[in-house]
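note to self: dont lose this again. the chain is below, predicted strucutre after it. 182 aa total, dont forget to put it in the shared folder this time
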Amino acid sequence: MDNPKTKLEISELSFSLYQRSLHPELFNIYSKRQIRTENYDAQIWATGCSHVVSAYHKGMCLSELISMPGQPLPKRGLVERFQFRGQKNHRCRLSKGVSYMTDFQVEKMSPNLYRQSHIDLERFAKNRGIFVKFPEMSSSGLEPFSYIDFEARKTELHIHAFHAYPDQVTIIKTQSLVGFYD
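---
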């Protein structure tokens, strides 16, 4: 598999929301989890220093993803697309009993804070979530990584993701909540 591209400007990345599933062939998937509950199913993919989360409920699919520039993505089903600049909040209610909200921020850090965040998140990931690191892409002794934590509740899916870009000493933090109702 190819290594994730980390030498890019954070503002070149896109955060997209689709009302459809996305094909796994479009991504390099480094780790994945499947969630099944009585109200919904979900797939979580760590796709380098990015992610794809798809939630399925009553014949409807909602997918959020972070994508690199030039990533081939479908136009059909696109609900929203944002660039990573500062902090952003977004909410929407979709058809067939699904609501969605997200909050993301771009956090520039000192090398010491970046290193400590890496240590803390990797330690936390031993008990839950997905943690993928890319030592071969290190920059100035700092390592790129992705940590995706999730909590599957009866009518909600909570996703917390951290994607680290050492060449810019920056971590993108996203928090999403998908709600399922009748």
